[in-house]
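Example S7 (structure tokens).
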């Protein structure tokens, strides 16, 4: 049997389509995509991006051939809004999502552990409808609001709400450094923390990138979920280990710093203190984000259909053992509720076409 070839999904060349157009194309030939099911759906942060860009990626499997493809979806900018990227699987020879992309996985949903468990997997069209609906609800790009953080967070949570009952979730130890858009301190951490302490995460991202360039399994080495240490404790415990200190020193040298033993110890101590200082709610670089979470709450509260969206969100059952993305640190109760209303609105929009 030859390699699977399906327009706008299993293709020989990498291509890009706006999310709404992609959903329209799949919907117009829905029978062609009926046997294309989603294996996993993952939130990713690009550590090499100046603004620590976030996006989602998912693996699709064709039931008959078991061939797989990977699709990326992300919020763009003021000119080019949201798009999906599809085509051949990336390899070291063909290149990855982007030459500079340094992908750190945050959280991931897995639908069925093997190819025989296809009934519990959403179709690629169902995922396309959610991505398109997220674009509709998101409207224009907002750097501090409906940004890439917002798109990745809400699209992921919408998929989780609708299909979480038949999924398992993996949340990496550093999952809390993901943003959410308008979520106050969470977005400040999403941008600032991963910038200040990139050295702590880059090794994991490099490993994930290498896996992504060599296979289409859902996790590769199947790393275990590590204990949910507070962010400061993550950095502190990391720097207390000799091997990690050596990695930190190597990262500093890679940046052009040649340090004496005394300077190394000073840097290690300074990094631990910096970790503590920059998680305080009144840190200067968090204030702009804190103001904007109020806008999210006010906007959703003023929506005449807010309770309808919230009820729809809550009607979908998520397993108790699954880590709640909206409970993990999106902020105060009001911010949490506002994000749930937003995702409920996305789900309503997506269900119009399902």
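Recovered sequence:
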């Amino acid at each position: 049997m030859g390699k699977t070839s399906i327009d706008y999904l299993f293709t020989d060349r990498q291509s890009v389509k706006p999310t709404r157009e992609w959903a329209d194309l799949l919907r117009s030939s829905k029978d062609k995509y009926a046997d294309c099911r989603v294996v996993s759906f993952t939130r990713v942060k690009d550590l090499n991006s100046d603004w620590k860009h976030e996006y989602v990626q998912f693996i699709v499997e064709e039931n008959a051939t078991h061939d797989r493809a990977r699709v990326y979806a992300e919020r763009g900018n003021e000119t080019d809004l949201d798009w999906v990227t599809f085509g051949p699987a990336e390899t070291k020879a063909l290149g990855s999502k982007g030459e500079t992309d340094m992908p750190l996985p945050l959280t991931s949903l897995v639908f069925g552990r093997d190819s025989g468990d296809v009934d519990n997997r959403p179709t690629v069209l169902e995922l396309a409808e959610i991505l398109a609906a997220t674009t509709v609800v998101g409207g224009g790009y907002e750097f501090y609001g409906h940004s890439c953080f917002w798109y990745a967070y809400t699209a992921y949570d919408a998929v989780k709400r609708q299909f979480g009952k038949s999924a398992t979730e993996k949340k990496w130890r550093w999952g809390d450094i993901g943003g959410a858009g308008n979520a106050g301190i969470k977005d400040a951490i999403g941008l600032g923390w991963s910038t200040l302490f990139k050295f702590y995460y880059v090794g994991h991202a490099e490993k994930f990138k290498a896996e992504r360039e060599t296979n289409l399994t859902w996790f590769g080495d199947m790393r275990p979920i590590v204990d949910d240490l507070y962010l400061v404790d993550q950095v502190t415990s990391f720097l207390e280990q000799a091997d990690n200190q050596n990695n930190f020193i190597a990262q500093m040298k890679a940046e052009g710093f040649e340090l004496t033993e005394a300077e190394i110890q000073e840097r290690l101590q300074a990094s631990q203190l910096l970790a503590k200082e920059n998680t305080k709610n009144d840190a200067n670089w968090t204030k702009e984000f804190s103001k904007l979470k109020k806008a999210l709450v006010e906007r959703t509260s003023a929506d005449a259909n807010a309770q309808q969206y919230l009820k729809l969100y809550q009607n979908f059952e998520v397993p108790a053992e699954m880590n709640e993305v909206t409970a993990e640190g999106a902020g105060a109760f009001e911010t949490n509720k506002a994000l749930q209303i937003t995702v409920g609105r996305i789900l309503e929009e997506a269900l119009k076409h399902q």
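Notes on this example. The two ends are 31 Å apart (CA to CA).
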